[in-house]
Write the structure tokens for this entry.
Amino acid sequence: MAEVKAKKGNEIRFEVTADAPAEVHVHGYELTEQVDAGRAAKFSFPAELEGVYEVELEETATPIAELRVSP
């Protein structure tokens, strides 16, 4: 599983690609993006919440990354 790290107040940026169409969900921040097969879904948002959050493929509840935001 991938790990995304950021400091609070910085910008969080990452991309997700998938073999099949899926919805990517960033828990805690409650952000979602649709990703098409073979294309990237791009996320960019401010790191406002400290903690550890799961990024998953929503339909299958498959964890794909862990987002860690430190003070």
The longest strand covers residues 62-70. The mean pLDDT is 95.
